[in-house]
Design goal:
2 domains, 11-stranded mixed sheet, D-Maltodextrin-Binding Protein, domain 2, 32% helix, 21 strands
């Protein structure tokens, strides 16, 4: 700082006087403003509000219609459900219920005791009638997630002031997990109404630790609910800022304009914050995401109608290469449709020459499962002059990561098969893709799936089940048709029905194991990778948690 010596003494005296006047004025302002005095007090750091930045776009926060990830995070903090998950685990625990359900011997009747002394944000008392109203509204208003309940629930009744009885259409052992879905929360019957499409997209009145004060296109304000029955928040409220781009969110976090950043930074931005964490004191919270990415294979589209072709294609997938080259380590290779975070996970697509997903990524130049790749090449050469197998591979063109992953897979497959497989890439916008999947338009399509509830069933039934079909015609009605695979297997349908009724956890695990074995044999889908979630917080924020459900509890965040 040698240049300071060139200042003359008059300038230094002027600066000193200005500094003293500034300090005096600051003291007067704080002294005259009790709110500022309270915020600056070192004795109450938890009284500060936390500013959270995100690029998420909120379509709706009506629990009967909200289906997006960030909307679910908001409902998780604004509302309560009958059941939730113990912190840091996938263990189901009571929330508005006081115990796990009492289930009838036939598995159809669930009797649930409810918590007393709970109040809605508008002052309405919570009871069984209010909970029954909330779940009935979820089913009758016809929102995006409606099938979660309408597919399994027959009736809901308040059988006592604090007792709820739910009748199922058929046994479903994972039903308590469905009741932990964020949209299955209690809402005030004095504010909401039952009726087709009668939604409140920008307001919420529930029973959670926060109440919604303001909801706009660029910001939301969540204040602490003083009458909350449970754990009181460690902060005075949450201010959510919505950014138009990841670049703006990235800059806002780096400059300290927001206290935390969550969803969705680009790969390079995540890596930059990771690399700068030690120097800048940023907190990087990383967790295994519940979302999975996979290929849907149309079994009615040649050459994918041949099981050996699907098996060979699966053997040529280089997941560690995707992990390293495309995603910079920000995903985990996945070898089943069930993610690694669930005990039922069985890596049925992992080949002997592939390293475990828990070890370091191998060199980019390594090739997988050469015996199977060469087997395919030999098969083709025996049939010369037939050309290479040609496979049309589609991806969502509006998702940059999908495009990069598709290009990488194409190069890897064609290199590993030494030209025996020719991949023809094409992209289409997401909305168009979703409307055409069940029409058989796409031979191979790269998709992703985020579960509605944390149970292995929700990673298998929505993919493999078929309500109408045959081995000859494939799936004519059901989940696999909606996924664009058209897979039909009577044994799979039987096993899914069996695991949904099996009360014994060990026997249920065995059923999931068999389903995954058949999945790897028939290859209607090829799992690719499992997402990771990241939450970034400034160094003065404590109590940061990223749950296995991909939810962030706002009430534990503390500033100071």
């Amino acid at each position: 700082m040698h240049w300071i010596t060139h200042w003359n003494s008059q300038i230094r005296r002027s600066l000193i006087v200005c500094f003293i006047l500034f300090c005096l004025s600051s003291v007067l302002v704080v002294g005259c403003n009790p709110q500022l005095a309270h915020r600056s007090s070192a004795q109450s750091p938890s009284s500060e509000r936390v500013v959270l930045g995100t690029t998420a776009v909120i379509r709706t926060i009506d629990p009967a219609d909200a289906y997006e990830l960030f909307s679910g995070n908001l409902l998780y903090n604004l509302g309560d459900r009958l059941y939730t998950y113990a912190p840091g685990t996938t263990e189901l625990v009571p929330q508005l219920a006081t115990a796990l359900p009492k289930i009838s011997p036939d598995g159809l009747t669930y009797t649930i005791p409810l918590r007393q002394g709970v109040t809605f944000h508008d002052g309405t008392p919570f009871n069984a009638k209010a909970m029954a109203f909330s779940l009935d509204r979820f089913m009758q208003n016809g929102g995006a997630p409606v099938a979660l309940l309408t597919d399994v629930v027959k009736s809901i009744q308040a059988t006592a002031e604090y007792e709820l009885t739910i009748q199922l259409q058929k046994p479903f052992v994972a039903f308590p997990s469905v009741l932990a879905f964020t949209g299955a929360c209690a809402v005030s019957p004095n504010v909401y109404e039952i009726g087709k499409d009668k939604f409140k997209s920008d307001e919420f009145v529930g029973t959670g630790p926060y109440k919604l004060i303001h909801s706009g296109s660029d910001s939301m304000r969540l204040d602490v609910f003083d009458q909350y029955w449970g754990e009181k928040p460690a902060n005075r409220g949450i201010d959510i800022q919505f950014f138009s781009s990841s670049a703006n969110l990235f800059t806002a976090f780096k400059t300290g304009a927001v206290d935390a950043a969550y969803q969705n930074l680009d790969l390079d931005q995540v890596r930059s914050l990771q690399q700068g964490a030690n120097q800048n004191g940023w907190q990087v919270i990383e967790g295994a995401g519940a979302g999975i990415y996979y290929l849907s294979l149309n079994l009615q589209s040649p050459p994918l109608d041949r099981i050996e072709v699907r098996q060979q294609l699966a053997a040529l997938i280089d997941r560690p290469l995707l992990q390293k080259r495309v995603f910079q380590g920000q995903v985990e290779p996945l070898y089943s449709l069930i993610p690694t975070s669930l005990d039922a996970y069985k890596p049925v697509f992992q080949t002997p020459t592939e390293t475990s997903q828990t070890t370091l990524v191998r060199a980019e130049t390594a090739q997988i499962n050469q015996p199977k790749a060469h087997s395919l090449m030999a098969e083709r050469s025996d049939r010369d002059p037939l050309p290479p197998l040609s496979v049309d591979f589609w991806y969502r063109s509006n998702l940059t990561s999908n495009q990069l992953a598709s290009v990488t897979l194409k190069a890897s497959i064609q290199r590993s098969s030494e030209g025996a497989v020719q991949i023809n890439l094409d992209g289409v916008e997401s909305a168009t893709a979703y409307s055409n999947l069940d029409k058989g338009v796409y031979p191979v399509f790269m998709l992703d799936w985020t579960p509605d509830f944390l149970d292995p069933d929700n990673y298998l039934q929505p993919f493999l089940s078929c309500t109408k079909g045959s081995p000859q015609k494939g799936c004519e009605e059901g989940a696999s048709k909606l996924q664009g695979s058209f897979y039909y297997n009577d044994r799979i349908n039987h096993l899914i029905d069996q695991e949904r009724q099996e009360q014994n956890p060990q026997r249920r695990q065995g059923i999931f194991s068999e389903i995954q074995d058949i999945l790897a044999q028939d290859v209607p889908f090829i799992p690719l990778w499992q997402s990771k979630e990241y939450f970034f917080a400034q160094k003065d924020i404590s109590g940061v948690r990223l749950e296995p459900t991909q939810k962030v509890p706002f009430w534990t965040l503390k500033k100071g």
